[in-house]
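All the exercises in this workshop are built on plain-text protein records. A record pairs a protein's sequence with a compact description of its fold. Read left to right, the backbone structure tokens trace the chain's path through space. Once this layout is familiar, the rest of the handout is easier to follow. Here is such a record, shown just as it appears in the course material:
>
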Amino acid sequence: MSAPDPTEKHLLKRDLGFFDLTLFYIAGGLSLRWIATAAAAGPSTLPIWIFACLFFFVPLAASVLELSSRYPQEGGLYVWTQRAFGDFSGFLVAWTYWMCNLPFFPSILYFGAGSLLFAFPHGEHLASNRTYYLAFALICLGLITLLNMLGLKFGKWINSLGALGSWLPIMILLALAGLSFLRHGPATQLTAASLVPHPSLQNAIFWSTIFFAFGGCESGSFMGEEIRNARRTIPRALIVSGIVLAVSYMAGTLALLVALPGASINGVSGFASALQRMSLQLGLPGVVTLVALLIALSSIGGAASFLSSTSRLPFVAGIDHYLPKFFGKVHARWGTPWVAILLYGLAGMLYALLSQAGSSVQEAYNLLVSMSIITYFIPFVFLFLAMIRLQREPAPPGTIRLPGGKPVAIALATIGLLTTLLTIALALFPPADEPHKAMAVAKVLGSTLLLIGTGAVIFWRGRFRKQLVISAGG
């Protein structure tokens, strides 16, 4: 395993504390689009939320909690996998995670752009305008990239505002749903039969989306050497934000179902359209303007949290010389891996441009979400395997360990691993309304295999280059 360059990493600034990191996790983990998606599928999604929380989110958060406390270095998942399985596995995990967020950026920003239209009169005429969605994504990514290059002391404010933009709409939703229930009764009948998930393939496919919603708690550890007292701060922030996420997703879905029939909730801007319908029914039309602005802010904060954290993966790979050396550079004044951040931001913009080629807004959005799910969950396979394998190593002093020690850690990681493999399999199936199902599956599989193959080629080229440098130095 290669040794990091202490000179460059020494320039990093520890700008994130407990409060900052908690808001970071909320901004990145609490996405309002999944609440609308879940509510549109009906009451049977409520037990799926509970299942996803218990069998994916809890094992994931527990694994990240212990691994980040054991090994709080910059890079997080990259470091853990590298330590457990070697340099190739570490790089491949970092590569797939890094690349999978490229479709995530335009997909979440399209959601924000669609929701923002509800804040303006006659904004609906832009709902199918590809240029509007693309411009929104490019401008937001440019701003996010610039602020994060200047330092986390600036970039963290986007995360904090994004967390507020996620949390406040849910509070407003709960208030409106309560008022709607008192005036009109429940719009959806919640019976024992309606809460049972239907044993259909399409309903099973939906599970992969719900599991995807609970991802993100692993990202904070990528900035381990930019967090004050990371060994203790990351676990504490994980616990607080995890409770907020789980309660918000389930309470928000239930509130939408109480106020509206599931069939009326759909589209890229499903959450905003649902709030608009509720506010009009209750005679409170002004509420939707505030909610639309907050949702757009939430989407920007979600994109910002993943850009700031995930850009640290090519940074550490650059330090290890598996990517060109300039990826591992830290700005002497700003204390940030500015090259890695800049290139990642530019890559996100390029992906937004490519995603619109020959597609409608909804088609582009669906493809981006599908590609994100497949590639996003591959690193989790290695994360849970690393959690199991690294139990053989003694925990460093000061490590926060799971109650029950090694047996509990292995059991939770095994549950998370099995759930992740199931999620990957389910995500391969196209939506029922997809007109070209075989082509959709081929696109997702082909892009995923191409991504992994490209990462392997880059690693072996980097390894060959690194050996030449070592030989020349020797």
Residues 1-5 have pLDDT under 50 and may be disordered.
